[in-house]
Design brief:
The chain contains twelve helices and nine strands. By secondary structure, it is α/β, with parallel strands linked by helices. The protein folds into two domains: 201 residues, Alpha-Beta Complex (Spore Coat Polysaccharide Biosynthesis Protein SpsA, Chain A), CATH 3.90.550; 82 residues, no CATH class. A hairpin with a 2-residue loop joins β6 and β7. α1 runs parallel beside α2 and α9 runs antiparallel to α10.
């Protein structure tokens, strides 16, 4: 396979200990990127030092640390700025708390060329100090409606795509506090982008105490409704039930009071249907938390 130039972009926010592991995984690639741009929205000194230390004595890939001084905080604007910093025909994104297996870019680039597609999304595997966790294989063959109804399994760490496809949709939407990866992928599909799935789990998704945007919180529930408001007009009322159910279920999982749990549970039930249950992205829900709350309600412990 002919060598393909790739720009890697890593948004970061005050997690130097994880950033070092993410960068180390990029530098270990069998097909290394041309450039690696780390974009920080808080100019964390330790993160800057991590990048500078790993750059010493290295000519390829070129590492750069960029402090994003304007715009709302968040990964989307940082990814966009990082993409602008390079000029390679292919872009790859990695969150600062995730990692790539050494052959990640090799596999993604090979599939990009062999399948003649605009983007490749790769299977992920959760990991924590306790060891490896669940594997998530992205859904293949989705159209825009399918990506609206179902979690496509696309994150900020497992997509490699042509720069032309990225530019065609204007990159990530900084106004989306959560669901920004899904929003980006949905807009790619709406623009006619083709994609392939690499089923081998070559991306590690870290589970940690600092939290992720996929954790069940009121902020995530609000962000899911924002996603529905942005795209819902393109789809049917029935399609939107899945999104509303997911928002209410997330709020129910995050409930800190009996009244809040019951209110959200009622709203979730009103939006439930067998079709919703089939399309629901169960991997982002927190069934264990809900089961615990139900048990406490029944026993009177809560």
């Amino acid at each position: 396979m002919a060598e393909v130039e790739v720009d890697c972009v890593i948004p970061t926010h005050g997690r130097p200990q994880y950033l070092r592991e993410a960068l180390t995984s990029v530098l270990a690639q069998t097909c290394p990127p041309s450039t690696v741009t780390v974009v920080s929205d808080d100019d964390d000194l330790e993160s800057r030092e991590v990048v500078a230390g790993l750059q010493v004595g290295r000519t390829r890939p070129q590492l750069a640390f960029v402090h994003r001084r304007s715009g709302a905080p968040g990964a989307s604007a940082s990814r966009n700025l990082g993409a602008q910093a390079g000029g390679s025909p292919v872009l790859a994104f990695l969150d600062d708390d995730d990692t790539w297996e050494a052959t990640y870019l090799e596999h993604a680039l090979a599939r990009l060329a062999c399948d003649r597609v605009d983007a490749v999304v790769t299977a992920t595997q959760k990991f924590s100090p306790a060891g490896p966790g669940a594997v998530k294989v992205p859904l293949a063959g989705l159209d825009a409606r399918g990506a609206f109804r179902r979690s496509p399994g696309v994150t900020g760490s497992n997509i490699v795509l042509l720069r032309s496809a990225f530019d065609a949709v204007g990159g990530f939407d900084p106004s989306m506090p959560v669901q920004n990866d899904r929003d980006f992928f949905l807009r790619l599909l709406l623009s006619g982008v083709s994609y392939a799935v690499e089923p081998v789990p070559l991306v590690g998704v870290r589970q940690h105490a600092q939290g992720r945007l996929t954790d069940a919180t009121d902020r995530r529930a609000d962000g899911i409704l924002l996603f529905e408001a942005k795209h819902g007009a393109r789809f049917s009322w029935w399609d939107r039930r899945t999104i509303r159910y997911l928002s209410h279920y997330t709020r129910m999982s995050a409930a800190s009071s009996r009244a809040g749990f019951v209110r959200s549970a009622t709203a979730a039930l009103l939006n439930w249907s067998p079709t919703v249950a089939r399309d629901l992205p169960l991997d982002v829900l927190h069934g264990g938390r809900v089961q615990k709350i139900v048990k406490e309600l029944v026993t009177g412990a809560w």
